[in-house]
Amino acid sequence: MRIPYYPGCTLSTKAKGFDRAARDSFAALGIELAELKMWNCCGATFPLSRDNLLDLSGPVRNLAAAAAESDKLAVACSTCFNVLKRSNLVMRNDEEKRERINFFIEAEYAGTVEVLHLLEILRDQVGWENLSKAVKKPLTGLKVAPYYGCMFLRPPKEMGFDDHENPQILENYLRALGAEVAEYPHRAECCGNYIVAFDLDATKEMSYMILASTRRAGADLVVTSCPLCQFNLDRWQGDLTMKRGGFRPIPVLYDTQLLGIALGLDASAFDLDRHYVDPRPVLREKGLL
Amino acid sequence: MTDATPITRVLIIGAGIAGIQAALDIANSGYEVVLVDKEPSIGGRMLQLSETFPTLDCAQCIMTPRTVEAGHHERIRLMTYSEVLAIEGEIGHFTATIQHKAASVNWDLCTGCGLCQEKCPAKVSSPFDRGIAKRKAIYTLSPQAVPNKPIIDRESCTWYTKGKCRLCEKVCPVHAIDYEQQSSTTQVEVGAIILATGYELYGLENLGEYGYGEIPDVVDGLAFERLLSASGPTSGKVRRPSDGKEPKEVVFVQCAGSRAPETAMPYCSKICCMYTAKHAMLYKHRVHDGNAYVFYIDIRAAGKRYEEFYHRAAEEDRVLFIRGKVARVFREGDKVVVWGADTLSGETVEIAADMVVLATAMVPRAETKALAQMLGIPTNEYGFLLPADDNMAPVETARPGVFLAGAATSPKDIPETVAQASGAAAKVLSLFAQWSGVPQAMQALAEAEAL
Amino acid sequence: MRIRLSAEKVHNDFIRKVEDMSGQDLLKCYQCGECSAGCPAAFAMDLLPSQVIRFLQLGEQETVLKSKTIWLCAACQQCYTRCPKGVDLSRIMEAVRDLLMQEQGDKIVIEKLPAEVLAEFPQQAFISGFRKYTA
Questions:
Q1: What's B9-101+183-198+365-435's CATH class?
Q2: Which domain holds residue A167?
Q3: C92-129, pLDDT tens digit by residue?
Q4: Which of A1, B153, B281, C2 has the fewest Cβ atoms within 10 Å of its own Cβ atom?
């Protein structure tokens, strides 16, 4: 199977490990994630002012490029997924905006592409059972806290493929890989997102609440599918340790990195060494590295 | 219009306080009543309550005289554990087919001794106790049930499900158990019908942000009533469902599922502000060192002495009212954490509670819709029965001879329900009076006296 | 000082623009506070999210424009997801930000970002930051 793939800017630069793990893992499952020949930045945030058509044209150009190749577009990053999916809905449902944007970007895109998150593809095209069968190194003994963040699930009317108050897709994914799921209440609370550029202290506080909760739930590591979530959760743990006694740093991995490891692939290309909180000790301890 | 004289007998569907009040009004005026309820005994929701607002009267104490009177009245024919299957005809001449579900107990022989219930080994979650306690497979709803005859819930009875046991049969001193009993049907001829099928509460399974009903210590208002009730599963001691401990911090969440056109029911459920204030007060009366917090959007206390009741909760019982709708309730350890806001002070609020009580919206029972369709009565978009006119004809329907009373038409409190029931009864009595020649008789009497 | 309410003040031009840009009817909000209760950044805000709408309902946009709150909104959409009236508060926040920046300039100055920040932060943070904090 071959699906056009949109990596996004961060996966092409600061989060190469996320991207590499995605491509390698999916290849091992028989799915070629074929990078779009031409793509641009999605904008990293869906424009919320109704008259902001310029910020919509960026993501739509990617959809138009995908439409030339297929009716599907695979996305790894939850934020890109959010922007592309919501922009796609505008092109489908809003005739006036569709015309103006198409005019501006010189395309004729009508919302025909289906934007799919990699986890959706695993759930719907591969299936959890088949995924389990493909696992070479089950993540036995590893207790993982699934972190959804916001972009994946909200707003439910537009993103709607999992229950936003009780999502299960990451849980099912983790169990298919043989891991134990750490249940904690803050898996869909915001990590801070771009506030990190405006109020670092607030961001640290938001991330801390999530991380401390994962530790209380007995997690060995956290898994996420958004590079900004990964950064916000991973980067400041040194500070948090200093400020709050008792908090033990917890590694934050991308979902595809865990996937690659479970599929028995060579994890050296996954940039595990570039995380701020090193995930390798706990992975070695569980015999996964 | 048929030549036959219209029948001065009424069919009342639903034997809660509305149905019982109407039944007594009509029976005490000399006419026959057929009173049907799907539960094994009569009394409806009031029997689940602990004390009623604003007087804090014991619900069972004010209900039992009514249920007993209705149960013994020579002109009231009780049909409990029964459902109306079909209704044909028109005003003055309705024929109703009523199914009597198989109780598996011969009620003519049963003396109500209760031994079967005591000895039955099968326990199952009790809907009457809203899932916070268990009942036996053979059961009556309460020790004061009218009629005080048990039924066997065939879905939880080990004999029906696994072919074992039959202990109740062994212990019954009058051999009243009859496992082969079949359901039966009766047809009754009536001249008028009153629908008084009451309410259900908006299901917790719809409230994702409050835990989907899966957190044991997050319960709805009726479940809390069962905890508070002296005849309830904890004999009125406030104990939380998960571990039986006495909760010291209880949070009451208003508008759970109401006033929310986008996410749940759009309407205000009218009684929750009052019953929540009551719950908080009764909790404080029982747990003197407990803390009660009520998260509200607006306090609706429009009835007689309701405003004073609310002030009493705050001033005498020291309930803390916080203005802000709760966004989230989740478990953390053995606590239930509540995320709310106090819009008046401008602060977000977090409470690590021991227990949370959700004031959920009143909704019509599922069976009401089917009954409405059977009778050709319109319902509104939420399933509540529609009267002929909300303002000027609230107890009549578009169908002549069919009347409404109680919470099946819209959320309401007990005084309103009783008044509506008497209103519906009066409409029926007016018909019956005309049909039994009373106006002619009075006219004749007046003419005779004038001579 | 009392706020002086009048027809001109309450539904003034700025408010009209906010409604138009956000596509939201401010009077739909009945101030229940659920958005504030669930907002992950509210703890760091001066005005509560629901208070932002309240001041706009009163035509008192000055208070909103001076607040830190509108810059701390992470567009996580939790408010909109839970609002019982379906008001998209994140769109209102964006409209206010956009209008303010059009008048007063960008909130963050790209040239002034420290080198370590530029080196470390993922692209995503810059791009969404620029989109939200510049006009």
A1: alpha beta
A2: 137-285
A3: 999 999 999 999 999 888 788 888 888 889 989 999 99
A4: C2
